[in-house]
């Protein structure tokens, strides 16, 4: 009788069945968002990033002055109702220049990291999937690039290409390529041993289709996390190159260049250094907090 009762046991009903159906209906990305929004620090970081993105998009509407407008009679004015962040050595409004600087710093961060992701991920997928001499050749290339301190390699690249914002962007993209390449390679080495990859090969699927439709989608999680953190690093590197005079050139309102131009007036007009520095700090903090939150949300071990 007990065996018959077990065999004829009815499926769960009521709240239990609703919970099971809801869990099955939730997509992986919705699940990631649920875990992400539980992380207060990550939400704060996302809010900071969103703030600076909106600042960059609507810079023309927010900035009360043009970033090139000079007025020597207003030289080194302290923060006031007319100039919220004060003025610099040429009488330019620092608030306006910081606002326009957000557009430049974020542009450099996003574009340089996008280039690094495309090149690094492509090389990493090829190295991890094909292995042998291809893997050895690409891995040695990554090792050579990683043998140099990143900022020194960026300086060397800009020195060869010439100081400009575009060349600084190229340099930052180059120094981040091996980071994404090695990350994706390690993921591909694991993914290519899965049964569905073996099955795809068995039915004669082309390598390009396997890489684009099976290997790459299953390697996206670490790329997204590293990409978010790399944007913060790229903004710092762009500021460092600008500070050294190898990035953005005057009168471009790049935050690092603003710090370099104001370093001689740090005691006389500290606000000329303080506000660009705070902008760099908050932007980098936002991307770092958001990247940490994405890492936890995308990690399957964090589901429970």
TrEMBL record:
Gene3D superfamilies with a match to the protein in the record: MetI-like
Subcellular location, record wording: Cell membrane
Keywords, alphabetical: Cell membrane, Membrane, Transmembrane, Transmembrane helix, Transport
Entry-linked InterPro entries: BP-dependent_transpt_permease, MetI-like, MetI-like_sf, OppC_N
Keyword Nucleotide-binding: no
Membrane topology: Multi-pass membrane protein
Domain of life per record: Bacteria
Spans traversing the lipid bilayer: 43-67, 104-129, 141-162, 168-184, 219-245, 265-287
Pfam families reported in the protein's UniProt record: BPD_transp_1, OppC_N
Domain ABC transmembrane type-1: start-end pairs: 102-291
Family: Belongs to the binding-protein-dependent transport system permease family.
Name of the molecule in the record: Dipeptide transport system permease protein DppC
Organism lineage: Bacteria, Bacillati, Bacillota, Bacilli, Bacillales
